[in-house]
């Protein structure tokens, strides 16, 4: 069994055929998917999807792109929404200085709100970080100093130092289809040095389809292609990468019940 730790099933790209996409993923051996919230104001659509499929769970939070529009979202609101049994994570939140769709101080403020909610609920924080290595490292070190919280650096595409800091602070590192791209040699070298018990795989669908689907719409079934490249990168078999990343997934997203076949 493989899992997709990060996808966006609520996006309009999937509207017509969501059930077929989940079915294709399950048929491909993807036993669990986490559909990630990007706007608290649209959380209702996300939770309805999670409620519709046994294999789908979700998060609640505001993507850094939308941080300026959702600065009124409080820690209390996140805590309250995350009480739903299908909500297994907070986020995605973080810093995106590549697009800078929201002012950087708004991104940081929203990020710290989500950290507080993760700390209070004990749910893991799904972190989006792009071109913001130094500020991300500073905030993670500052906030973990105030009190522990679990987190994953999702769709990792930052520099080696941020991966090392994330791991040192107890975090997980999740790799997407980017790790399969020909020009991602440095990213594969970083992945090879992440401790195996901190590795996760994801699609970030509908974006970032792995080779051989690069440039097309991504979907959770394709996470198998990312896992295959990650296995080759770290020198383990396909069965081992599935076992390791799935075990890590259930350890991090610990609110999600493990399927009985895996509970031993
Ligand atoms: Zn993201
Ligand atoms: Zn995402």
From TrEMBL:
<dbReference type="InterPro" id="IPR001130">
    <property type="entry name" value="TatD-like"/>
</dbReference>
<feature type="binding site">
    <location>
        <position position="154"/>
    </location>
    <ligand>
        <name>a divalent metal cation 2</name>
    </ligand>
</feature>
<feature type="binding site">
    <location>
        <position position="92"/>
    </location>
    <ligand>
        <name>a divalent metal cation 1</name>
    </ligand>
</feature>
<comment type="similarity">
    <text>Belongs to the metallo-dependent hydrolases superfamily. TatD-type hydrolase family.</text>
</comment>
<dbReference type="InterPro" id="IPR032466">
    <property type="entry name" value="Metal_Hydrolase"/>
</dbReference>
<feature type="binding site">
    <location>
        <position position="204"/>
    </location>
    <ligand>
        <name>a divalent metal cation 1</name>
    </ligand>
</feature>
<feature type="binding site">
    <location>
        <position position="6"/>
    </location>
    <ligand>
        <name>a divalent metal cation 1</name>
    </ligand>
</feature>
<feature type="binding site">
    <location>
        <position position="128"/>
    </location>
    <ligand>
        <name>a divalent metal cation 2</name>
    </ligand>
</feature>
<feature type="binding site">
    <location>
        <position position="8"/>
    </location>
    <ligand>
        <name>a divalent metal cation 1</name>
    </ligand>
</feature>
<dbReference type="InterPro" id="IPR015991">
    <property type="entry name" value="TatD/YcfH-like"/>
</dbReference>
<dbReference type="GO" id="GO:0005829">
    <property type="term" value="C:cytosol"/>
</dbReference>
<protein>
    <submittedName>
        <fullName>Putative metallodependent hydrolase</fullName>
    </submittedName>
</protein>
<dbReference type="GO" id="GO:0004536">
    <property type="term" value="F:DNA nuclease activity"/>
</dbReference>
<keyword id="KW-0378">Hydrolase</keyword>
<dbReference type="Pfam" id="PF01026">
    <property type="entry name" value="TatD_DNase"/>
</dbReference>
<dbReference type="InterPro" id="IPR018228">
    <property type="entry name" value="DNase_TatD-rel_CS"/>
</dbReference>
<dbReference type="GO" id="GO:0016788">
    <property type="term" value="F:hydrolase activity, acting on ester bonds"/>
</dbReference>
<keyword id="KW-0479">Metal-binding</keyword>
<dbReference type="GO" id="GO:0046872">
    <property type="term" value="F:metal ion binding"/>
</dbReference>
């Amino acid at each position: 069994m493989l899992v997709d730790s990060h996808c966006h099933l609520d996006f309009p790209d999937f509207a017509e055929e969501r059930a077929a996409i989940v079915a294709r993923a399950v048929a491909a051996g993807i036993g669990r998917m986490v559909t990630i919230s990007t706007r608290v104001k649209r959380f209702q659509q996300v939770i309805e999807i999670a409620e519709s499929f046994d294999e789908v769970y979700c998060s609640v939070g505001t993507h850094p792109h939308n941080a300026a529009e959702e600065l009124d979202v409080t820690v209390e609101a996140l805590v309250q929404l995350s009480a739903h049994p299908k909500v297994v994570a907070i986020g995605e939140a973080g810093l995106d200085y590549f697009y800078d769709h929201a002012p950087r101080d708004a991104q940081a403020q929203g990020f710290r709100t989500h950290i507080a909610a993760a700390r209070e609920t004990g749910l893991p924080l799904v972190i989006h970080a792009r071109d913001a290595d130094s500020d991300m490292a500073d905030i993670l070190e500052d906030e973990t100093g105030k009190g522990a919280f679990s987190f994953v650096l999702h769709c990792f595409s930052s520099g080696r130092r941020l991966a090392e800091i994330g791991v040192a602070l107890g975090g997980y590192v999740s790799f997407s289809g980017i790790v399969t791209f020909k020009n991602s040699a440095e990213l594969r070298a970083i992945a090879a040095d992440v401790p195996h018990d901190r590795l996760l795989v994801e699609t970030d669908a509908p974006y970032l389809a792995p080779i051989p689907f690069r440039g097309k719409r991504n979907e959770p079934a394709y996470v198998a292609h990312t896992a295959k490249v990650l296995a080759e990168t770290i020198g383990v078999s396909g069965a081992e990468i599935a076992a390791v990343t799935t075990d890590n997934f259930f350890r991090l997203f610990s609110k999600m019940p493990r399927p009985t076949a895996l509970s031993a």
